[in-house]
Amino acid sequence: MAASQSQGAAALAWYVYMKKNDQKKPKPGDLIEIERDGFSEWAVYVGGGKAVHCTKGIVEEEDLDTLVGRDQWRVNNSLDKDHPPKGKEDIVASAKEQVGKKMASNLQLSHCERFATRVRYGRDLASQVQGSVSLSQKWKKFLQYITQHFIRNQGSYSCA
């Protein structure tokens, strides 16, 4: 299979995976997890197509489409079951009042997740630093899903 066909198949497979896993549109106050090369970047959706995130230690507001680029993303409020979030108005206001500020942290990679969880839950719940979520586990689950789906459909992908 040619490289472009392989990339197209992978993109279609990711789309099918996200559809099957009920990817939803973000609502103000939702946490957005963006899959980057080797790590996840986090942002807080503030409405109007905008998200607030921390990059290189500085909090910025940006169009979600620009922030995400070509990377995969999802709404990830998975910590809600164990940690009640603040109200959506409080989350959005807290995120927006941080724009332009510098974040202090020992781990550059964790800036964005620490920022996002502090804004949503009022405290630092960064799973990348604590080790409760790993990209390799997500990819393993995704590849298992694709393998099963591919075999079940005799080598063809369907969005149905």
UniProtKB/TrEMBL annotation:
The keyword DNA damage does not apply. GO terms for biological process: N-acylphosphatidylethanolamine metabolic process. GO terms for cellular component: cytoplasm. The keyword Transferase applies. PROSITE patterns: LRAT. Residues 31-128 form the LRAT domain. Keywords: Hydrolase, Lipid metabolism, Transferase. It holds the Pfam family LRAT. One of its GO terms (molecular function) is N-acyltransferase activity. Gene3D superfamilies: endopeptidase domain like (from Nostoc punctiforme). Belongs to the H-rev107 family. This is Phospholipase A and acyltransferase 4-like. The lineage of its organism: Eukaryota, Metazoa, Chordata, Craniata, Vertebrata.
